[in-house]
């Protein structure tokens, strides 16, 4: 938090119950008289309203990694239009998410930008890959994990040479806490057979095989999408 204050910059990475903790910490920023700050909220549209109601002196942006039509605070066109009015900018990780956000809105499209996830490609040619699909994301409906499991269930017999992995948990960093929805998903995935393997939550030090590039990190952070993009291009 000290580094954020020194840089006069704050970025919200809201995960589950940590939302309240971050909101309490950000009170320090909101009380600041230094106007050379910006506020970024990631994947929590409903928090924009809470922040804007507290202060309007800092430019506030929203970063979207998931379909806004499925997220609290941006499901309706009216909600998304209000977000556009309140935010300095909206950043989306794909054209699909951008189009979902502006659907039904006829103004301020210039405030919605596409900022793709990605990493620098250090090799000229795509490497020969294993016939394996890896899904990384929480065991919640918003992440689309149920769709992944349904697809895997329908294709394994047709493609016996392919393998499918699921790195996921209901709560970030916790393999013990579950709910009825996540338990059913795990059971359904495990029933697929030898072509499917469930790993639960894994941190950044995890490697699927000894032959793969290893991500060295002692912190218990979730394996992010950009890390897996890097792995797919043999980047360390």
Summarize the structure in words:
Helices cover 32% and strands 14% of the residues. Helix 4 links the parallel strand 3 and strand 4. The protein folds into 2 domains: 2-114, no CATH class; 132-232, no CATH class. The protein has 236 residues and is an alpha/beta fold. The chain contains 8 helices and 8 strands, in the order H-E-H-E-H-E-H-E-H-E-E-H-E-H-E-H. The two termini are 28 Å apart.
Record keyword descriptors for this entry.
236 residues; alpha/beta; 2 domains; five-stranded parallel sheet
What is the H/E order? HEHEHEHEHEEHEHEH
Radius of gyration equals 20 Å
Weakly predicted, low-confidence segments: 1-17, 210-223
Which structural class do you get from the secondary structure elements?
alpha/beta
- Mean pLDDT, to the nearest integer, reads 77
Number of domains: 2
Can you describe this structure in just a few lines?
This protein is α/β, with parallel strands linked by helices.
